[in-house]
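PROTEIN ENTRY
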Amino acid sequence: MNQKRNIYFILLLTIILISFNSGIINAASNSNQLNLQPPAFNSKIAVVSFLIILILVLFIWEPIPIGIISLSIPVMLASLHNWTKVSTDQALSGFSNNATVTVMAMFVLSRGIQNSGAVQILGSKIESFVGNNQKKQVGTIAGLTGLTASAINNTPVVAAFVPMVTNLARRTNVSPSKLLIPLSYASMLGGTMTLLGTSTNILASEVSMRLINHPFGMFEFTKLGIIAFGVGLIYLMTLGYYLTPERITSEDQDLMEGYEMEKFLTEVEIKENSPLLGQSIGEVFKEADEDLDIVQITRAEEQFMEPLNVKTIRAGDHLVIRANRTTLLDFVDTKGIKLLPDIQVSQNKLEDSVQGQKVVELVISDNSFIAGQTINDVHFLERYNASLLAIRHGERITHNQLKDFTLRSGDVLLLLVTESTLDRLENNENFIIEEESSELPDYKKSDIFLGLTIVGAVITLASLNIVSISIATLGGVIAMVASKLVEPKEIYEAINWEVFFLLAGLIPLGVAIEQTGTAKFIAQQLLRATGVFPPVFILSLFYLFTAVLTSVISNNASVVLMIPVAVGAANQIGANPFAFVLAVTFAASSAFLSPIGYQTNLMIYGPGGYKFKDFIVVGTPLLLILSFIIPVFIALFWGI
């Protein structure tokens, strides 16, 4: 989302919240039918409302990492205790909360399932079943993703399926753009089928327990989740299929063509009288101070790539240079370099099967250490001995100033790498290699059975209330390590620490919203505008508002902010508060409208080459359909 859109949203949100606080929203003056006196606006509500606005602005603007913003929340709440009514113990309660512990453990359990090979083997069976029938591909990928995401965290499921989906698209001449949005949407909807499907459900259960003494059972809302998933699946195979664009065409089999590299890669030859002879590559291009990189050197029919800085330039060397035409011509004019315009630098030319050089696409995964930094900041090229050719962010492809480009989750790097580098990157959880190997690793059937058994045991123990879900998942972590499906050091790598800090900060914020009466106050202002409508319509509005909010901030943040307000509204109109909790929870897994509100959307944004508006076009009809269906079935199943 660009800066202008951020500003517009912040202004709109600020106006709405100020309107709540000042009682401007009174469009339905006949809400006196409720016979309820709104809570008096006071300094406590003012301070907490200001904190909500501030935190939302910071989440959207993200001047510092989300994790650091989240850590600042307990500090602010405790420092403003006289107004927030949050003690030091309450401010720190998020770190030891059952939801936080359970979510941490679920990341590790998901890693164990990935390591066992269960997800990869499931994915490998798709191509033989669907062939090149595009609608069948969409249905099968969405169905398999949703069912898998119902049992383990949906983020690693998408991470494992992205290479499989892009490979399938290339081999069957289908645009990966047609398959990746269904992959992400299905993972969200699949996460609504069980308590363990997503961190949002676990957090919502804890908030529901605190507010109305009703935590979620393991399969309590499964029937509603199946309906939501079924509706989503039908939509993605029908109307959604036609609305999903082909941003990356199926003809782009040569990655160099897909990234328009013909304008930025040129092969040159070093002349006998070149003043560069005897100098190292590093010396020459440090002095040049231009946006120009050496991608590859060919000398006596042998190819060399990064690290090239120490290579000495010799007469007759052929260099593949990445630069725009103007920069290149300015550089070669006085350097004794001969342009070779008749030689096209294609993917086949750069790749060398003998030396194991390969052009690949690398996706920056969710919570990658490189997100928010540049290539130079982390010394990526030196660390991984790779040559960087281009960067894709959504639809936009960048060819210039690559080493100073600030990377984000979902960005795609076009790299020239060796086999050893490719192996390192494939085994690094910070990255996703889009083109997976044609041969799966030698997974053991016993490991797959063991991994699934451990997860099954966790689900059984928690669902039968034999032990709490937090203890059951921690026991599952111990079992994963004991069975060597997860190495001890992998525990720390598997946990998404940004999500951990986010939960730790948001949980006490929810306490402040409730204890100061802010939730009741905002709920009353909402009801002033909607009190004339039936409860199921109000429920639908809460679903829509939460889903839109989730598409801009995050699913966990929207749950913490909206559940107290929804419960307050339900109590004031005499409705079933649990129905409102469920509506908000399901809406928090309906971030269909943007690529930034949910991790899985970010992960497919670059690989699909999408525009921001693509999520609005494909997601809006689905959101409107679900905003009608989910409240209706909540009313049928649980009453309202």
